[in-house]
Write a structure and sequence with these properties.
Blueprint (H helix, E strand, L loop, with lengths): L1 H23 L4 H13 L6 H10 L1 H23 L3 H24 L4 H26 L2 H5 L3 H31 L1
Helix pairs in contact: 1-2, 3-4, 4-6, 5-6
Length: 180
């Protein structure tokens, strides 16, 4: 858990540095592509202008960025459909585990190192974007309103008690009605 927190703090520091670099970097092409690639690696969304730049200058990276965005929209929708906070956490862990397995498979694949490097970059960018989407969702009001599984069980237990009491009351009323 501490490694995860330390990794998250380190990632936030790197993201802040990347944002400063992108803002302060001159708009020459030699610096722009690597800085955009770094933003993707950090899990950040690109602005429409940045995507347009990629579309013109690196179509392959543009398609990866668009694919990552679509995947994150689907992940966010899945989290919004979750019934509990634990469900959201399970969704996140399943995604991150999938990426870890993908990276492991890529490294064992025996593909040329350049192809492996690009595949690992893409999978790492997807993983970072997933972590960023999860972090954003957890700070959202929708997440704060989700019950925990324990709260859901307690609510169900109370509902059942109330239903049982209501049935007993109805039985008593029917009995009284028959007698009169």
């Amino acid at each position: 858990m501490m490694r995860l927190i330390a990794g998250t703090i380190k990632q936030h520091i790197q993201i802040a540095q990347l944002k400063r670099e992108v803002k302060s970097a001159p708009t020459n092409d030699s610096n722009r592509l690597p800085s955009l690639r770094s933003l993707l690696t950090a899990g950040k969304r690109l602005t429409p202008e940045e995507k347009e730049y990629l579309r013109k200058h690196d179509p392959s990276l543009y398609h990866k960025a668009v694919s990552i965005e679509e995947e994150q929209r689907a992940f966010k929708r899945a989290m919004e459909r979750a019934r509990t906070k634990e469900d959201v956490k399970r969704l996140h862990l399943a995604k991150v585990g999938q990426y870890a397995g993908d990276i492991s498979s890529i490294k064992k694949s025996g593909a040329p190192s350049s192809a492996q490097g690009e595949a690992v970059f893409y999978t790492g960018a997807r993983s970072a974007a997933t972590n960023e989407t999860y972090r954003e969702f957890k700070s959202n009001v929708k997440y704060s309103k989700l019950p925990t599984e324990q709260e859901l069980r307690e609510k169900e237990r109370i509902r059942k008690i109330l239903d049982d009491r209501a049935r007993e009351r109805i039985k008593k009323l029917r009995y009284i009605k028959k007698r009169s």
